[in-house]
Every structure is written in C-alpha cells, then in structure tokens.
Amino acid sequence: DSGSSLHMTADATHHVSCQPVWPPLSIIIANGAVLPFSSRGLIQTSHLHVPDVAYIPKLSMNLISAGQLTSHGCRVTFDEPVCYVHSRLTGTLLGFGRRRRGVYVLDYLHVPRAPTPSSPVASSLCLSSVGFSQWHHPLGHLSVPRLVSRMPSSA
C-alpha cells in the first residue's frame, strides 16, 4: 500500500520475535476508524519474511507499506498486472505480486532485516510508477478533486 506508513497484520500466528510497543500506538484506517496496536515483529512463512510488522488485531486485511519497503533498501515497481520489489543495493528480486480486483497481492516477499538509509528518489518511485487514482481512491482516500479543494490557493 502506497498510503500506508507501516506494515500491518491482524494474524499473529506467523509473528516471530514480537516486541511490545510502549506506549501503545494507534493508526487511522481509510474509513476513519482508529485501531490500536501494542506490538511489532517479524512475519515469517515460506513465502514471507518481513521485519517490523505491526500487529493490529482488528485490521480486516494485511498491508505492506511501500514507504517502509523503500526505507529498508527496496525499490518498489508497480505495473498494470504485477508489482516487483527489488534490492536497491544488488538489484535482487525480493518480492513479486499480482493485481487482483484493483489491489496488488504479494505471492512472496523476503525483506532484508537491516534497513538502509532511505532515499527520497527511491521513495518517490513507488508513488509515480502507478497512476494516482489506481492506488489512492480504491483504498478509500480522498479523490483528486477533493484533495485539490483542500489545498491552499497558493500551492
């Protein structure tokens, strides 16, 4: 998700090395609901290895943050039918997903544990590689006309 600020899951079964977050934090989801979370950890399965995932029990779906991936040294590329996650350092393919019913669903993702310094250029790639309306509006975010109407006239 390009609009998500962190990786999130409601499924604790694959969380390993989960650490408490103190004080507990909250996120605001697309419908405006506030969901608390109090732990983060590594998600590990045969298809996933994703560090620093927030456990949010009331979440309705798992989300991977494109911004958090870029902070971990990844390059995220969205194309019409697929998305790719590569290492910025080596170019190695780390993840792959397919577009299903308007969202990208990952088939696998293996993110390195240690984050690397984030790059503003790399962070902007994940947002400019796919059309704004393709990722923004289906997630329940404001439409372009509503966003424009909220911008200061000097912007």
What would your notes on this structure say?
By secondary structure, the chain is an alpha+beta fold. The protein is 17% helix and 41% strand. It has helices spanning 66-71, 120-128, 132-135, 144-150; strands spanning 7-9, 15-28, 34-44, 48-55, 74-78, 82-87, 93-100, 103-110. β5 and β6 form a beta hairpin. The longest helix is centred in the last third of the chain and has 9 residues, at 120-128.
Question: Which keywords apply here?
Answer:
8 strands; 4 helices; alpha+beta; 155 residues
Give the rounded overall mean pLDDT. 76
Silhouette:
globular
Structural class label = alpha+beta
Helix and strand element order: EEEEHEEEEHHH
The main sheet comes to: 8 strands, mixed
Q: Percent of residues in helical segments?
A: 10-25%
Short note summarizing the structure:
With 155 residues, the chain is α+β, with helices and mostly antiparallel strands. It is 17% helix and 41% strand.
Give the SSE map.
Layout: E1 7-9, E2 15-28, E3 34-44, E4 48-55, H1 66-71, E5 74-78, E6 82-87, E7 93-100, E8 103-110, H2 120-128, H3 132-135, H4 144-150
Parallel strand pairs: 1-4, 4-8
Antiparallel strand pairs: 2-3, 3-4, 5-6, 6-7, 7-8
